[in-house]
Amino acid sequence: MSIQISQKRLVAFNKQSGCCYYCGSPMWEGKQKEFANKHKITKKYAARFQCTAEHLLARCDGGKDQENNIVAACIFCNRNRHKRKKPLVPLKYRALIQKRLQQGKWHPKKLRHLPSPQ
Ligand SMILES: [Zn+2]
User: Fold this and answer.
1) What is the per-residue pLDDT across 97-107, written as a single tens digit (0 to 9) for each?
2) Ligand 1 center to residue 3 CA distance, Å?
């Protein structure tokens, strides 16, 4: 990963107040242990909230490494989107996750005490 993209990830992270673009959960940037302690969860659970850069328009579809094409998403949401054969467009994927969250089906029960801004 280039330095540039990690800088843009940080910009997005700050712009979103450290919350995942998709699920709204708080994320961490480089401080997994502190994050785990702060939210009283295990390091293993904290791992899924690592901040990653997500391209709204995928690079293979011509998306650029530009700030307006990059959002910060937790690694869990990011990976799940790309597990699909044909990943949903970000807004649809986001709506799907919001629905799952309401049904309590996205993150495990143990993580539901995490603050969610949405
Ligand atoms: Zn997420």
Assistant:
1) 999 999 999 99
2) 23
User: How much distance in Å is there from the Cα of 68 to the middle of ligand 1?
Assistant: 19
Q: φ, ψ for residue 26 (rounded to 5)? A: -65, 150
Q: Tens of pLDDT along 22-52? A: 999 999 999 999 999 999 999 999 999 999 9
Alpha carbon of 64 to ligand 1 centroid (Å): 22
Distance 38 CA to ligand 1 centre (A): 18
Q: What is the DSSP code (8-state) at residue 14?
A: H
Name the pTM for this structure.
0.90
Which of the following CATH numbers is that of domain 3-109: 2.40.160, 1.10.10, 1.10.30, 3.40.190? Answer: 1.10.30
